[in-house]
Amino acid sequence: MAFYVVQLQFDLAETDERLAVRPAHREYLNELKAAGKLVAAGPFTDQTGALLVYDVADEAELRDILAKDPYTPADVYQLALLTEWQPLFPFSE
């Protein structure tokens, strides 16, 4: 397994559309968390984007996960960053 960090940049012109899709997006994230694929996620306090950390087999799996996210077909964000990450400290809840 590999950790990946994804930074989303929200399209501020599409805020109403993003907010309309957000419940489905968050439900999808909850499913990923329950499946052990999502480690952490949350929006920036200024609501310009979000940061997500995934635990997946590889980048192909991550891209498949992102393609299935309700935010993707709604076209309300751009990928600002998608990179493999090597944490120095373990995650704890």
TrEMBL record:
Residues 3-85 form the YCII-related domain. Signal peptide: none annotated. InterPro entries: Dimeric_a/b-barrel, Sec-metab_biosynth-assoc, YCII. It holds the Pfam family YCII. Belongs to the YciI family. This is Uncharacterized protein YciI. It comes from Kribbella sandramycini.
